[in-house]
Design brief:
Layout (H helix, E strand, L loop, with lengths): L5 E6 L17 E2 L2 E2 H10 L4 E8 L4 H14 L8 E6 L4 H9 L8 E6 L7 H14 L2 E7 L4 E5 L2 E6 L5 E3 L3 E4 H9 L8 H7 L4 E5 L10 H12 L4 H6 E11 L8 E3 L2 E3 L13 H13 L5 H5 L11 H14 L2 E11 L9 H12 L3 E6 L5 H4 L3 E12 L7
Parallel strand pairs: 1-4, 1-6, 4-5, 7-12, 16-17
Antiparallel strand pairs: 2-3, 6-11, 7-10, 8-9, 13-18, 14-15, 16-18
Helix pairs in contact: 1-2, 9-11
The structure holds cytidine-5'-triphosphate (CTP) and magnesium ion.
Length: 404
């Protein structure tokens, strides 16, 4: 069996200002686990791993240690003996790495430096980089081709198109011969954008191997959706990251009161018989409220507005729609669109459709479409005993917010 010679340094001490989450970026959770946890899991599976060092924000050192130790305990056979150290990071990425290297095992011959922000970089990249370092005794960066056309600019003018066949985008983990890396860090003066640049500034040659699309860096909220799609399949981004859908239905009986007006979609439908209900019986608005609340996982109209509460007696649908909008906004969601359908023989919807759509669209700040159908004369709706409505609402994470 080949001896264990590999140390992995994971830097996780940044603030994650561009992501804008409530916690430092490495501690932001995707699928119920922090980015750091995802990164550690993949790093722990590397071949010939001897030591794992994490640089975390000072106040989260204990938490990072528990995460790493728990993952090591359930990792494949042999990984429970990996030495795990967590240090407090520094003011810059380079400082954080310097602090991590202070606890580097003297038995480590190859060191991989990895960003926790590249949480989904697969183990195969770790192994590929480490192998190339061992073989060439030099630094190795994983790279991806540059797909965009790249321009060199000055002021407001494009100077030239750069030949992209020579360009590569660098990822992590980047690998180095341990003694070369520690020597370079010991003498590092200025800040370099990555470790390969630091090594080259110290006169070392750096080679490259193929990177991996999954090793992209999570920087802004948009990258969170991408992480879901890449790591868990395209459809998975919907629930926990980007968008949510909800459904709501409501039914009200036509009233016996001859002069009670009909309200559907918050507006009066002149000349039509009204609906019974503790509020004004606006099945359209109530179905939409349920759809909005359901999409955000916030219960329904009954649990939020207690439809038997006296202050809602006779209330217009606008009251409930406004309340639902406030609740979902507070939970970090915005409405993308709403579709609502009236089911029943009466009233005829066509003459009112445009007006109701316009009013509801303005109220919700998002497109609302109203459609109608009958039940082929069947049941209480076919017999014109009442009106039913079914709605779906699509929500998206509000701008700059990560939602819940
Ligand atoms: N990092 C670190 N110590 C720092 C700064 C950054 O360990 N003082 C780490 C981050 O935790 C991250 C990696 O370096 O895993 C790459 O940095 P970046 O993507 O810029 O992350 P942040 O600095 O956290 O994000 P931002 O720049 O948006 O604040
Ligand atoms: Mg940063």
């Amino acid at each position: 069996m080949t001896s264990r010679d590999l140390a992995v340094v994971i830097v996780a001490a940044g603030k994650g200002e561009r992501l804008g989450a409530a916690v430092p970026k490495a501690f932001f959770e995707i699928a119920g686990r922090s980015l750091l946890s995802h990164a550690i899991e993949r790093a722990l599976a590397s071949s010939r791993l001897l030591q794992l060092i994490v640089a975390a924000p000072a106040e989260l050192v204990d938490q990072a240690l528990i995460t790493a130790e728990n993952l090591a305990a359930v990792a494949p056979v042999g990984k429970s003996s990996v030495a795990i150290q967590v240090v407090a990071g520094g003011a810059s990425r380079q400082d954080s790495i310097a602090k991590a290297l202070e606890v580097l095992s003297p038995d480590a011959d190859v060191v991989l430096v990895h960003d926790a922000a590249r949480a989904f970089a697969p183990t195969s990249v770790f192994d590929r980089v480490a192998l190339a370092v061992r073989e060439g005794r030099r630094g190795i960066v994983p790279v991806e081709p540059v797909v965009d056309t790249i321009k060199r600019v000055a002021g407001v003018v494009v100077l030239e198109t750069v030949d992209r066949t020579e360009l590569r985008a660098a990822q992590t983990p980047q690998g180095f011969v341990a003694e070369q890396l520690t020597a370079a860090y010991a003498s590092a003066g200025q800040d370099h954008t990555d470790d390969a640049a630091l090594m080259q500034a110290n006169g070392h040659e750096v080679g490259f191997v193929a990177g991996d699309a999954h090793a992209f860096k999570i920087t802004t909220p948009n990258d969170v959706d991408r992480a879901y799609a890449l790591a868990f399949g395209a459809g998975a981004s919907a629930g926990a990251a980007g968008i949510r859908v909800g459904i709501g239905t409501d039914t009200h009986r036509f009233t016996d009161e001859a002069d009670k007006p009909l309200f559907l979609g918050t507006v009066e439908w002149a000349g039509e018989r009204g609906l019974d209900g503790h509020s004004d019986g606006d099945a359209v608005s109530h179905a939409i409220v349920d759809a909005l609340l359901a999409a955000a996982g916030l219960g329904d109209i009954g649990t939020n507005f207690g439809v038997d509460r006296p202050e809602f007696a006779g209330a217009n649908g606008e009251v409930f729609l406004g309340g639902a909008l406030e609740l979902i906004a507070n939970a970090g969601w915005a409405v993308s669109n709403v579709s609502v359908q009236i089911i029943g023989n009466r009233p005829k919807v066509a003459p009112h459709r445009e007006r109701v759509e316009r009013v509801l669209t303005e109220l919700l700040g998002a497109p609302v479409s109203l459609t109608a159908t009958t039940t082929d004369g069947l049941g209480f709706l076919g017999a014109s005993e009442g009106v039913a409505a079914v709605a779906t609402a699509l929500l998206r994470r509000a701008e700059g917010r990560l939602g819940s």
